[in-house]
Structure formats: C-alpha cells, structure tokens
Specification:
Keywords: Amino-acid biosynthesis, Arginine biosynthesis, ATP-binding, Glutamine amidotransferase, Ligase, Nucleotide-binding
Number of helices: 8
Radius of gyration: 23 Å
CATH topology of the largest domain: Rossmann fold
CATH superfamily of the largest domain: Class I glutamine amidotransferase (GATase) domain
Enzyme class: ligase
GO biological process, one term: 'de novo' pyrimidine nucleobase biosynthetic process
Order of helices and strands: EEEHEEEEEEHEHEHEEHEEHEHEEEEEH
Bound molecules: glutamine
Family: Belongs to the CarA family.
Largest sheet: 10 strands, mixed
Shape: globular
Strand content: 25-35%
CATH class of the largest domain: Alpha Beta
Protein name: Carbamoyl phosphate synthase arginine-specific small chain
Helix content: 10-25%
Number of domains: 2
Structural class: alpha/beta
CATH architecture of the largest domain: 3-Layer(aba) Sandwich
C-alpha cells in the first residue's frame, strides 16, 4: 500500500530520493561522457569548468580562495570536507595587513565536488558552514558522489572539462562535447591581477616589486613578515621601466596557461639580461622565469594538486640542501620541460619524486645572478612548511645585494637571518 503511493523515480535520482527533492539534486558531467549524480549545496546555479582533483586533507578554505583555482571544478579526494567550517575572512588591521585571513577575498574555484559534506562543523574560529559560505559566494557544490571513481577517471584520462548541473538543469540532457567551456582558452591572469599598483608595509627596509599573476595572500604575508616593503604590480606591467627603484623582483602564482602571459616572459627576459638583483618566482612565476630563460612549458596530464608532493633538491642554495627531499604544497597543471642541456646560466633546482617533473630552476653560481623559481608553494596555506625559509633566503639576498650597492652608506646596517621572525620549518600534516 505504502510503496504503491511513491511515484516512479527517474534513474538519475535513485539513491537520493529519500533525502532530497529534485531542486537540490546536482549532476557532474564530464566531457568524456561520464556523469555523477548527487546532492547540491551552496549556490543553486549550474557552472562550467575544468575538473581537477586535489589530494589535500585539510585547508579547503585556503584552496578554494587560491586564485590559481579560477575556472576549475575542484574535486577533493579526502571524503569528509567542511567539518571545521569557515572562519571570518578578515585579517586583523595593522600596518602589515594584507586584507584577508584566507588566500583572497572570495571563493575562486567555479564549484566543488565532495564525497561527504559535513553540515555540522566545529572550530573555535568558524563562523559558518561550508555550504552557507558557498551560497554567499554563489558557488555550487555537489556531495554524495564517489570521488574515488571521479579521481580515477581524471588520473587515467587527465584533467577533463566539466559541467556541474544544479536544480532544473539536472534533468536536461548531458552537454554536447562542443558546449563545454575551456578556461585555458582565456587569459585568467588578466581577469584576476591587480589593475593598479599598491604598496604593503611601506616602511620595510628592502623594496621588492611583486608581479601579480593572481597572488595568494600568504605570499604577500610571507614577504611582509620578513619586513620587505612590497609594491604589487599588474602582471603585464613592464618592470624594466622602474626596476632600479627596487632591490628585488618576485613573480607570483596564477591561474591558467602560462603561455597566455608570454608578454610578461618577454619583459622578464630583458630584466634578466640587464639587471642583476635577486628574482624569485612561485608556480606561475616559476613558469614565467623558465620561459624567459628559454625553457618550454607543457600541459601535464592531471597536474599536481595537494599538500603531500615530495620534491628532491638537486642543488644547495640558502636554506635548501641538495639531496634532501621536501614535502610541498602544489596546485598546477603546467610544468617546465626538462631540457638537456639546460639553457646556459641555468640549472635544475628541484625535481618531483613522483613524476620527475621540473620542480625548480635556478641561475648557476657562474652566471653571477640570483634567480630562483619553484613550481611548488613554499608559502603553504595550506600544506607543509618545509620550504618556507626560501622567503627568508630571498629577502636576505635582496638585503645583501642592497648593502653591496650601498657599501659607503654608514646608515645601512645588515640584518642577519637570526633577527627575522620567520618560523622554524615544521612539517605539518599533509
Ligand atoms: N599555482 C599556480 O601558479 C599554477 C600555475 C599554472 N596556472 C598551472 O596550472 O600550472
């Protein structure tokens, strides 16, 4: 009797009918034809994106606000996501304030995919749940799907374009192959980079220019904490016009294909041939340095995203010791091509222990330059702090270089590494 009164449930909705209504159903479509049905949360809006997976266990708040995830549908391989909620994304206001507690002002990925969304959360700094945060930021999510199956597909066939269909769109047909939006065809960096230069910690003792390809806030914090005065410039700003006003140049992380930023690589090529002060780049910044040095960049099959990527140091420099393995935080789809020989004046710095991809390059001792690029994220947020001292290495080099240039200025007193307030490297849970 009772069973006869239940309407027939379309195949797509089976398994969810007991605790969802069609309005909170979601389907993740992959361009390769697979589809996964689950329960919607967050914004009730359908989106397109590039489906990628991250093996990070914690820090969903940091990953989701990392501008490098722009245009991507982020699949978490860790099943339980949301259990510590979301903090207020506002930094305490002081002279060194970078404006936010997380990695940027808003959620940057297009959507998220989790196996088991925690609606109940518990953390002393949490102010809301993951789903209410997504709703406020107009970002949809899907839960109750087999993220192991999705990850296996993405590992085997590579990062795949996707569609997260929510609400009424759930019942419409799967998108045709040519309907999928491909974020790599757009210059995502141009959408996210600052449009006007700004300064942080103006009274810092060493002046560093930061080319902003979509900077993570913890990069800015890591420089400011080491008392650098930083000027953040748009990604395509020609630093050569102002370079002598600065003691060092930093190139940030950023979303999309590095070849969309060839203009920056060409500007940097001129900087590197005409200017001898320290230069450091992270992720996209490292790829730009590599392209300026004459290396090629390629698209990896599924990239590296997670906080547990081991890299082997091939050379010693500052806090980094050749032969040691460092566990690193990563989020990238592209990498520099390993060439043999390496361009003159350059050498490999790190190599990935899992897939042997290039994880870092540096200028050789003989070149007389001080240039480093790393594919991973020493600033963490989230992830291990194994390589955080690379910021100290860079800022100290900028300071030393400044002092060498001002040898006859008695006002300038060297600041040694021991006076810097950087934390001791501690490996935290990956
Ligand atoms: N985190 C980053 O800077 C990523 C760089 C580049 N967008 C890539 O995917 O490889």
């Amino acid at each position: 009797m009772f069973f006869r009164s239940i309407p027939r449930i379309p195949a797509l909705f089976r398994g969810f009918a007991t605790h969802t209504s069609p309005s909170n159903l979601a389907v993740l479509h992959l361009r390769s034809g697979e589809q996964f049905s689950g329960k919607a949360f967050g914004a009730s809006r359908s989106i397109w994106g590039e489906t990628v997976f991250s093996t990070s266990i914690t820090s969903y708040t940091e990953s989701m606000t990392d501008p490098s995830y722009r245009g991507q549908i982020l699949v978490f391989t860790t099943p339980l996501i949301g259990n510590y909620g979301v903090p207020l994304n506002r930094a305490p206001t002081d002279a060194r304030d970078v404006g936010v507690l997380l990695e940027s002002k808003k959620i940057q990925c297009s959507g998220i995919v989790v196996a088991d969304l925690a609606e109940k959360y518990s953390h002393h700094s949490a102010v809301e749940s993951l789903s209410s945060w997504c709703l406020r930021h107009d970002i949809p999510g899907i839960t109750g799907v087999d993220t192991r199956a999705i990850t296996t597909i993405l590992r085997n066939q590579g990062t795949t374009l996707g569609r997260l269909a929510v609400g009424p769109d759930v019942v419409s047909r799967a998108p045709a192959e040519n309907e999928y939006w491909d974020p790599s065809t757009e210059n995502l960096v141009d959408q996210i980079s600052t449009k006007i230069p700004y300064v942080l910690n103006p009274n810092g003792d060493v002046k560093i220019a930061v080319l902003d390809f979509g900077v993570k806030a913890n990069i800015l914090r890591s420089l400011v904490r080491r008392d650098a005065a930083i000027t953040v410039l748009p990604w395509n700003f020609d630093f050569n016009a102002v370079r002598n006003e600065f003691d060092g140049l930093f190139l940030t992380n950023g979303p999309g294909d590095p070849k969309m930023c060839l203009e920056a690589a060409l500007n940097l090529r001129r900087t590197l041939t005409q200017w001898d002060r320290p230069v450091f780049g992270i992720c996209m910044g490292h790829q730009i340095i590599g392209m300026a040095a004459g290396l090629d960049a390629y698209r990896m099959t599924f990239g590296n995203r997670g906080h547990n990527q081991p890299v082997l140091a091939l050379a010693s420099s500052g806090s980094i010791k050749a032969g040691r393995v460092y566990v690193t935080s990563q989020n990238h789809q592209y990498a520099l091509t390993l060439s043999d020989p390496f361009p003159a004046g350059w050498e490999p710095f790190f190599i990935n222990c899992n897939d042997s991809s290039v994880e870092g390059i540096k200028s050789t001792e003989e070149s007389g330059k001080k240039v480093w690029g790393v594919q991973f994220h020493p600033e963490s947020a989230g992830g291990p702090l194994d390589t955080i001292e690379m910021f100290t290495d860079f800022v100290v080099e900028c300071r030393m270089d400044m002092l060498r240039r001002s040898n006859d200025d008695p006002e300038l007193v060297p600041i040694g590494m021991e006076t810097l307030s950087s934390p001791r490297p501690i490996a935290v849970a990956a």
